[in-house]
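User: structure tokens for this one?
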Amino acid sequence: MLFKNAGILDGELNYRENQFLAVEGDRIVYIGDRRPEGDFGCERDCSGRLLMSGFYNAHAHSPMSLMRGYGENMSLNDWLFTRIFPFEDKLDGNAVYWGTMLAMAESLKYGVVSTSDMYYFCEDMARAVDESGAKANISRSVTNPSGQDPEKLVSIREAEDFYRKFHNSAGGRVKVDMSLHGEYTSDRPTAELLGQLTRSLGDTVMHVHVSETESEHRECIARHGMTPAAYLESAGIFSVPSIAAHCVWATDDDLEIFRRNGVTVAANPTSNMKLASGILDSANVLKKGVRLALGTDSVASNNNLSMFEEMKLLLVGSKIAAGNPEGVSPGDALRAATAGGARAQGRDDCGSLRVGNRADLILVDISQPNMHPVHSIINNMVYSCSDGNIEMTMVDGRILYDRGEYTTIDIEKTVYEAEKATKGILSRL
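Assistant:
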């Protein structure tokens, strides 16, 4: 496919006007200001449009789309124990499949091409992702609050089996990560065993919640004499590439732990603000040399999967947290939402428009009123652009969403089945 007359945000986030971009198979094969030689099949005039990398959501729980708006105006603990956990106790594979498919439809509409997901019924999630054509790093979340023998935990066996069956499936679109839910939902033997398992697999990512709330952070210090980040490092969790979600209450010493272990902090500004968990000082994360990515968390605590909203709130929140309007730039936010997330997912050939990279693209209508005048296209993309500006989403060279239409998802059936599954669960509560 050949895109012509397009504005482009290239691999360095430089804006280039009137460009050609050619896709062959699943790769970008040409970017330039002259028409490339050869026949690329379908051509698309992108006048008044901008091509950029799709978004990489670095922390989510996709099946929780079934709980959108179900628990509002509550503290995190109340929200979890009175609304979310009872609902989740009634989930089955069918509900998880349709919840995931609904999340994939929303993601593609919002330009999200790949998601780091932490949940269970993972095979049903993988089936939905595969059929949708999207990408995901899916992990079976491991908890052990009662301190059972971790060698006998069903969740660890399921995580390993899922890895063996599905890692790098769907042509590499589906990757399998490992996940310790968090320090506070497990014990040291479980963390150590999961860390050992992840190291033995050799090519997977660890995904874990870290210092999301002040109480979680302080109670870990009371239990172990160290912060969650220090505890997780001591248990071997960060001995592989890792995504640490939230990190709102992480200290400077914690950030040094992340830096030296190559851990990516996945910021989730909307969820953290909505649950009054706090505001991550993203400027300090970057200042300390720590990798930064961006996540939505679940729609149960967000309530959508908009990365444009997350980028704007990341910037606004960082200014409040640091008391400094200059700490995080729009370019930093764009990198976190694209290349930062792709790198955290182990997708090194994704996340930026470069020749040879995967063709994970979104086409943004920049002719609309909210995008003018243009003093800086980068500023407009982060502060002014909205999901309504997204015209097309392409994953691995395949158009999955275009001008309101899905090419792989029966959206009417998906909405119907998701509603049906939700009502069935509510009737059993």
